[in-house]
Amino acid sequence: MREFTxxxxxxxxxxxDAGCTFFAxxxxxxxxxxxxxxxxxxxxxxxxxxxxxxxxASIGMCIGATLAGARAxxxxxxxxxxxxxxxxxxxxxxxxxxxxVDVQRLGPATGGATTVGQGDVQFVRWGTAGGxxxxxxxxxxxxxxxxxTRRAFDLAERFRCPVFLLTDKELNMTTTTVEVDEYDKPxxxxxxxxxxxELPYRxxxxxxxxxxxxxxxxxxxxxxxxxxDERALITKAPAKVAQLNEHLRAKIEDNAGEIELVVxxxxxxxxxxxxxxxxxxxGMRDAVAQVRALGGTVSALTVQSVWPVPERAIRExxxxxxxxVVAELNHGQYRREIERLAQGIEVVxxxxxxxxxxxxxxxxxxxx
Amino acid sequence: MNAPTxxxxxxxxxxxxxxxxxxxxxxxxxxxxxxxxxxxxxxxPNKVVLVSDIGCSGLSDQYFVTSAFHGLHGRSITxxxxxxxxxxxxxVIVVMGDGGTGIGGAHLLNxxxxxxxxTVLVFNNFNFGxxxxxxxxxxxxGAVTSTTPGGNLERPLDxxxxxxxxxxxxxxxxxxxxxxLTGRIVEAVRSDCFALLDIWELCTAYFVPNNQxxxxxxxxxxxxxxxxxxxxxxxxxxxxxxAYRKAALLHSGKPLPAPRPITPRFESPLAxxxxxxxxxxxxxxxxxxxxxxxxxxxxSGLWAAQRxxxxxxxxxxxxxxxxxxxxxxxxxxxxxxPDAMILLSREGVAKVGSQLAAMKPEDQVFALAxxxxxxxxxxxxxxxxxxxxxxxGKGSVALYCIAHALKALRVxxxxxxxxxxxxxxxxxxEKNADAIRAAVA
Lengths: 368, 441
Hints:
The complex is a heterodimer of chains A (368) and B (441).
Chain A: E1 2-5, H1 7-17, E2 22-25, H2 32-41, E3 48-51, H3 55-67, E4 72-76, H4 78-93, E5 98-104, H5 121-126, E6 135-137, H6 142-159, E7 162-168, H7 169-173, E8 175-179, E9 222-224, H8 238-253, H9 256-259, E10 262-265, E11 272-276, H10 280-293, E12 299-303, E13 305-307, H11 311-315, E14 323-328, H12 335-341, E15 346-351, H13 360-364
Parallel strand pairs in A: 2-3, 2-4, 4-5, 5-7, 6-7, 11-12, 11-14, 14-15
Antiparallel strand pairs in A: 1-8, 6-13, 10-12
Helix pairs in contact in A: 1-2, 1-6, 3-4
Chain B: H1 27-41, E1 48-52, E2 67-70, H2 76-86, E3 91-97, H3 98-103, H4 105-114, E4 118-124, E5 127-128, E6 134-135, H5 159-165, E7 170-175, H6 181-190, E8 195-200, H7 207-211, H8 215-225, E9 230-234, H9 240-248, E10 274-281, H10 286-299, E11 303-309, E12 318-326, E13 340-343, H11 346-349, H12 353-358, E14 364-368, E15 379-383, H13 397-409, H14 415-421, H15 429-440
Parallel strand pairs in B: 1-2, 1-3, 3-4, 4-8, 7-8, 10-13, 13-14, 14-15
Antiparallel strand pairs in B: 5-6, 7-9, 10-12, 11-12
Helix pairs in contact in B: 1-6, 10-14, 13-15, 14-15
């Protein structure tokens, strides 16, 4: 059974099905359809949706609400993400589960409000001070907008960190056909209760993530954005600071295998590998079908979990490959990651920054 | 009024850690009075969240046994708002310095406007005590700080007048020396509205030595500025978190959006991908007419994608809809060379020049007579506007022309378009069906 729908709607449905109870956002093209739909839907399930006075307030409200028991999401685009920066850091250090949708448009600054771009892929990774890891998922179709939104809520809960859903103007605003029955529905874990006898934070073992301490229960709960000990009291003690910061790194990087999500379409005998993510992977799939229909060979990799880089899964696609083509709507941001992994293999960038999508024909010209 | 039935009664809501503040700093007195107020309020400490900003006052939450949130500079109000919206039963108390009223001014103003149930204590000592005594939004005119060595040229923000004029439910101004501060905090928390207490105090590290300030000069500053002290404002606006839930009750339990699958009822002869572009003007219902093409394609067992382009000012300028139809899943939605184009206006035509230029003689253009003089190698079919029945009106021209073209293009049975028009009951369903029938007749 098919439906004629768009990515914004799929994200909203994914969020509601994942148990989202709180949304705050500020109007911005092309993310506004999510805000408008959440404002209409959340009151139906006794949730809260609010339009903040700006993006800073919006993400701040989401963080506060999460500590008070909500499961929160916000949505914006490049200029708004710039304003989220400081609070992304707060969610990292305070270990707050939070889903942030970045509906990318062409930047920098106001850029092209109604124009597609993928210029935020490194921005979401390094978008706040300190350089600590986050998780980012990039759907490449409307049905993936649904399934990866669910996945984002699950990972946010699992790792207690901001999880980005990296989409774009075309995915969110183009109406397209989806097979309703084939929607992938990954499970979303419930929020575990922290026993009131336990401290709000725990750093050892470094890769373990204890449940979130929430307000309003039987004990007092402390939260801080300053470097803190397990009681959430500010500390400068080097040993404790090191434990905290190692925990923030290890909980994501040492569990990268749990986050890893790619789609491999490998063909026997292929020497060219296309690598892409998000909306650009659509043109890639089209090109792969055309190359093969013409009797050619080519392999393709769609990276869904763009951060942390799914290194193991990516390397597994390199066997027999002599040329890797990394396609993205920026000047080669993710190509840097592929080059790092593909030592000895030629890596070619396929880029477009004029607000148009990369055509299948452009992919086809790069096949060796 | 909302006294809980069982609470942990504490003699003090302070923990045993001594304050870290400088000798003579006003923070000591304010926090002691906050503790006394909580004691008088007899609140379960677990149901109080102390939200602190940045600056010396931002350290405050660590000396209390209540729940606490210590976030980023100026943003305390936003976290507090989120907490209150998610759990309206919690008592949320914000502790911020005068610095926070500057960097977080927009949040303060908008929280007041919403009248959200927060109690905001402004520890106002006229400068940044933690970072070296720089001037703040409340530094009195002429005052010497590390960043106004020749005296402050700016006029200080009247926090109380600002929030009072913009929706706050309770506004009080006083000093850390005032004996009734405890009672005022109690009153503010009980009022369950946006309550702000602007508490003037002394920064003994910077403001006092730089300005020979004392308990006495606090009054002089007030008088010089013409600012008032005491209970300045009370209003009875609805509290936001409560009002939100009350309003939400009207929607509670209504069904969430579910997929609206379209079951094929027609068959399409289309064996390859077909690309159609409709170029018209804003207000011409191009988008909604194009959507019917997509739905008609699904009714015919095809896959469809629709990509719209229009200026950010939606009611003026061009409106372009690019529609891709295919017997297979569509992975790529952009159109370089259309198989067919429907041209409705000059504004639309101006945007599709490169697509028109890419078309070949086997491609088809359907153009209203006034825009049929386009440069293209495609075969151009002119639509005579005189043949469009007057009863249809301007809003149906796009759909009429689309139906006219689709009848000739045969990508799916034209009956599918009429069926799409009446898929959902709407005020436009019959009007749209009428336009399609007129075009097909």
